[in-house]
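$ run holo --ligand "flavin-adenine dinucleotide" --emit tokens
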Amino acid sequence: MSGHETALRELPLIGRGHARYDGRAKVTGRAQFAADVVVADPIHAFLLLSTIPRGRIDRIKTDRALVLPGVIDILTHENAPALAAPVSQAAGSATNHQPLIDPDIVFDGQVIGVVLAENFETAREAAALVDIHYVKQPAAVTLDSPGAVTERWSEINQNFEDLEVGDAEKALAEAPVTIDATYHMQSQVHNAMEPFPTTVLWDGDDLIVHEPSQYVVGLQRGVARQLGIDPSRVRIISPYIGGGFGSKLSLTPRTAILAALARKHRRPVKLVATRSQGFTLSTYRGESRHRIRLGATPDGKLTAFAHEAWEMCSRFGAYASASTDLTADMYAAPSILTRVNIVRTDRTTPGFMRGPGEMPYMFALETAMDELAYRLEMDPVELRRLNEPARSPIDGSRFTSRSLVKCFDEAAERFGWRNRNPVPGANRDGDWLVGYGCAAATFPCFNYGGSATVTLLRSGRARVETAASEIGTGAYTALGQVAAELLDLPIENVEVLLGDSLLPPTAPAGGSMQTASTVPAIRLACERIVSRLGNRMPALADLGAAFDRLGTLSIQETAQYAAFDGKNANGGRAVLSTPDGDEPIAIASYGAQFVEVRINARTKELRVPRLVGAFAAGRILNERMALAQYRGGMVWGLSSALFEGLAIDPIQSRVTNTNFEEYAIPVNADVQMVEAILVPEEDHEVNPLGVKGIGEIGIVGVAAAVSNAIFHATGKRLRDLPITLDKLF
Amino acid sequence: MQPITYERPETVEAAVRALGRPETLFVAGGTTVFDLMKVNVLKASHLVDVTRLRDPRLSAIEVSDTAIRLGALVRMADLAAHPGIRAICPLIPLSLDLGASEQIRNMARLGGNVLQRTRCAYFRDTSFEACNKRNPGSGCAALDGHNRQHAILGTSTACIAIYPGDFPQVLAAVDAQVEIAGRQGKPRTIPFTDLHRLPGETPDVETVLKRDELITGFLIPRGPWLRRSLYLKIRDRQSYAFALASAAVALDLAPDGTVREARVGLGGVATVPWRAREAEAALKGNALTEAIAHRAAEAAFAGAVTRSHNHYKIPLGKQTLVRALLGAAAMEV
Ligand SMILES: Cc1cc2nc3c(=O)[nH]c(=O)nc-3n(C[C@H](O)[C@H](O)[C@H](O)COP(=O)(O)OP(=O)(O)OC[C@H]3O[C@@H](n4cnc5c(N)ncnc54)[C@H](O)[C@@H]3O)c2cc1C
Ligand code: SF4
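-- output --
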């Protein structure tokens, strides 16, 4: 840790629950989201998307659309400007696909044209008048479709290795008790409240982009590269984001295309994509299948763990959430065998979404653990306690901190797990079958590092500036609060500027790492400010005198925090090397989820009256927002368990539910009691503030806890998400 | 933009006359019409807004000793909140409260409600070519497509789309009559169960209404069964979703529990508002036991035809009806 010499105060382990810095602006409508931005004389764009999954555009006729009064231009592959292909890395291209370069259709919902008009309605109407003839080809759009091709992920991604520890096959063959089960989940789409708006305008050679982004610096670089201009000529402005969940983490093809059109027509261009179009503009969580094999002794000690996964991918991209290291690190199995496959289909490339690998991989593992507990006639919590590893089962690394068992104990206590009658199907309340289930949660602590500028004024006001993103998690508040507490100022005195690529670059708001990556930089900047003030932060009343002594009106410090190096993430696990580099250490947050379900014995409607989760994620900066974040995650967990899934037409190989009517997410009535518990955890190694990520762990484990509770209620084991009521008949 | 003209006539005569123009539609609350226009499923160049028609009976809820009359322009929300109706026939507010959302119920009118269009995804998304209802003769994408939501009663090989409403199942169950005004001749009244047509070979023709006919009201004869009535709706989430299965039941029980009269409507499973007369026959004269409720449910679904993804609707539909019948029998009236 740096800065022992400076008397910076220590932050509390659980920080005060200050209300949201931007709460009032949001509820009064003053907060300007990208679609709210008003620019002078914009051209309105409307996208044309393909309506076949695979084939070619034979003919595209725009004459009927072009004569509509108010139509300005229609872009198709025949007249599109040349753009450099997007790079395909994190914060490179989301979909790995640049449309409008040829007549080929490689997925349903691919951008095949952009209509420009004087207003939105005209553009939309013109889009409907464009006449398109396709030559169709058969397409594979599910894991099981004929024509889908399975490849081993380790052969595609040189940085990824499957695990082989001991002889798991032998251990499985010899194990007295085994579980061998396959789990599946349908594709899901982020579906943030705010869809995908973009407004672009040129100021001479400088491009300004108003677009919600979870990583403004990445978007800036990506767009500049596609347009062949220097990144300093591109400014991304994204002060507020109406939810991203990973969909706004990477570059999508729309931005550079719109920028090229704005340049061509010398006018700003504004796009607000529709909800339905949003289903394919960015990435999604691909369908996946998981085979879990567990070997155990009759008293419940694991002897083997095997996890093979198949994840949907596109033909042209390379993405897998590949989280087998995450599951392998959960329990003390002496032998491990994992394998990740991708299945190439005629879909766009999947990407990061709400606990990308953590959610599906842990659904599989944690349901399998429950199956094992029942097989052993053992309490599922005890099974986990019994198999809690002291060190990483993968490579013997130690954990910086790991409070899984504590989370189970606290959540179980609050939930009333002890009173459970374990017999499946035996708990009834009138016409309702009652079931309890639990599951573990975990999330690795990724870290990108970051930078921030902190300015302290003589008046006692301060400003924090960093290119972080406010995706609804409360970044303004958390980052401002850290500076306020370190500089001993009232939080109202601290102004926070985020979401602008002109600000000091920092980690993306993704992978639950932005706060943990950024606050060390803020801390460092504050430390330098305090050191300039004589290594002690004066009382507010004395600040003027202190500044006068220095003969200045403001002190500004920009600091950079370099993340730990070392191989950061294989298989969805985060590892850091110790400063001397000899011993790797695993870093992750842990939690436990408990769920009560009620199922109508006749009609099988499913209600979830209670969700209780306990989480330990190092230092908590703001209690209120952490709880809100966890609870929101748990609601998404419920959503992934019971509601969300693309509906695929097997004949036409197309998605039929690109709307909120049929792509169901829970309404308020579905979400009853959701309780999160903060389990205090001190971690001095993960980073200088001991902050782990809290963004996504709330979603992890809920689906398994729900399916385990359904088993407890009914005796029926459901291994396929989402669990809709038809599956209960 | 395609120009649309709009008028707001004040008399029924003017309204029906206005329908003489081509590409003209009535619009009431607009929650179906505008929705479908935006996605290019409905096309119109002229809209006749009927919400300002001045005849007060069009917006009235009238209760006499023998009948309930509901004007076609009554808002869903207003009928749902009407205390008199709730006391006479709880089935009506129940079915309305469980439909759509508060905002939609504040806009939508009863006349529009009974004429709402199917939620079949292939009908509502013009990027799917085959849909006999939207584009006669083009085929039916749902038959072998994703048909988890689709109908199992009253289907044809041309269309298996669900009739989606909730309140209309009630009208079908309780022997409602529909009052219709037209351009030619006198106003006519027909049984509500005759209003919608089974899809047959022409799923695009959904009702027996002529293009220029306006629904002016609904007449529900009062009977002792209305008090003991309920609506049960089963759906994928607890609110703001269409029924996967629903049952509208009304019972008149003798003091010894024997069913003197039963009225049964089914939703979420059929192509039109569905009256389950076979179920009613199975109930009549019997004590409403679990076994009799099951027998009625068996009778109601005897003719069900399923497709690849909707087999579950047979057990679900039956259990929904059983639960509704037993629930109604247990009501304190
Ligand atoms: C998101 C959503 C969810 C919904 N969920 C439900 C639900 O759960 N349950 C449910 O029952 N409904 C549901 N609905 C449907 C809703 O109830 C109907 O859209 C509404 O009742 C239609 O009434 P309206 O007055 O808005 O009709 P409009 O849209 O104005 O008209 C509908 C049709 O009726 C015609 N019409 C209207 N009035 C007359 C008249 N007096 N005579 C002749 N023709 C007429 C119009 O020309 C048009 O064809 C939902 C709708 C939406 C958008
Ligand atoms: S079920 Fe009816 S509405 Fe749906 S696609 Fe077939 S014909 Fe069209």
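-- notes --
The two ends of chain A are 58 Å apart (CA to CA).
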